[in-house]
Amino acid sequence: MIIAEAGDVVEFKNGLQGRVQKVNKNSVIVDITIMENYRELDLEPLTVVNHKNYTIVAQQA
Predict the structure, then answer these.
(1) Would you state the pLDDT for residue 60?
(2) ∠ at Cα 43 (40, 45), nearest 5°?
(3) Best CA proximity match to 21, nearest among 11, 32, 12, 13
(4) Per-residue pLDDT of the chain (61 residues; tens, 9 = 90+)
(5) How far apart are CA 61 and CA 42, in angstroms?
(6) 33 near 46, Cβ under 8 Å?
(7) Residue 9: per-residue pLDDT
(8) Strand 46-50 vs strand 27-31: parallel, antiparallel, or unpaired?
(9) Residue 50 — φ and ψ, nearest 5°?
(10) Cross-referenced Pfam families, in alphabetical order (predicted)?
């Protein structure tokens, strides 16, 4: 399993995407406000995602 790093963009749960803000032992904290349709989703701006439940879309350069 590849663990994301802060700044990486990850995809999880039915196509939601977000930028990793913090990496914890078993999860990452993800900022989903980078999505174009964020306001339409009516979700909190930050969410916690287990390492098993995301894929890395873009890594920080």
Answers:
(1) 85
(2) 110
(3) 32
(4) 899 999 999 999 989 999 999 999 999 999 999 999 999 999 999 999 999 999 999 998 6
(5) 30
(6) no
(7) 98
(8) antiparallel
(9) -65, 150
(10) DUF2187 (PF09953)
CA distance 58 to 38: 19
Q: CB 53: neighbour CB atoms within 10 A? A: 12
Read out DSSP for 28-59? EEEEGGGSTTHHHHT--SEEEEEGGGEEEEE-
At 22, is the secondary structure helix, strand, or coil?
strand
Q: What is the DSSP letter of 25?
A: S
Amino acid at 59: Q
**pLDDT value of position 59:** 95
Q: Render the burial of 6-36: b for 16+ CB within 10 Å, e for the rest.
A: eebbbbbeeebbbbbeeeeeebbebbbeebe
